[in-house]
Prior knowledge:
Helix content is 8%, strand content 46%. The protein is mainly beta.
Amino acid sequence: METPIRYLVSFLLLIIALGCIVALQLLSRDTSGGWSKYKGNPVLGGKLGTVFDVSVLKEGDLYRMWFSWRPEDSIALTESKDGIHWSEPVIVLGPNADSGWEDGVNRPVVLKHSGKYHMWYTGQTDDNSYIGYATSPDGIEWTRVGDEPVLSPQLPWEKAAVMVPHVMWDEEERLFKMWYSGGEQYEPDVIGYATSKDGYTWRKREEPVFLPSDSGEWDGYKVTGAQVIRLNGSYVMFYIGFRKHDRAMIGLARSSDGINNWERHPANPIISPGSHGAWDSDSVYKPFAARGDDNLRYLWYNGRRGNTEQIGLATYKGEGCEFDE
């Protein structure tokens, strides 16, 4: 009878081992909803130190990326033909200690409108964050518009900080529309909304437009870092969700007007931290998506391991970021 018992024990151990392998595979899944991380990640970082929170424009066959460069407390520009291999960066907007609110500058969004480039960015002191505005004829030489920030933390929910602006131009309404993050200085809490006719004078919505989920799951603590695009008749938001202070993932939501009734994607989170020891194993932050070639959508994001953040790339093959897959 010993041999059958030995076989039974071996079989049970095999079943347990297979179950553990499947569980580990499920736990290590770091993309969903049709997204895939580029196998050669990260695409920007290394000797540059911490780089984070990018804005990308595709102009002809060239990608232009404005990114936050922490060792320099500045915003820099780099360019690429494929979205993967990037040129040596050039600082295009540095800190302005005399301003009283720009000891460091970071977290830009850049768009091209009426023949010139427009940048909204975060200016920071140790205690507070603000949003500034600059324009440029070429995306390299920037001129600040005014000496004061265009948005400051004033509403109760904004607490100490407004930061991470994303702006689009609505041609039909003739308005700039901004989604921005407000709340704590270290990581803001929720996403707000403002509009402007000239890019300088903004009218805020009194209450935030996007809040942490009621589920208390991956984005139940904080939501921040929005990018909003128009897609298939909807406003589609890529955003950061926090499970806890130092654990963040990337999700998708959509709304008919960009303000109300946001519907979260059923596959959320679409990008999660990588496996133990990976360059993005602790958190993934600040998505920025742009159309690539042949219906391929690119999404650049920050990945963090320890105290270092670098930029990685994820791709989506399809016509759009469908919500009914």
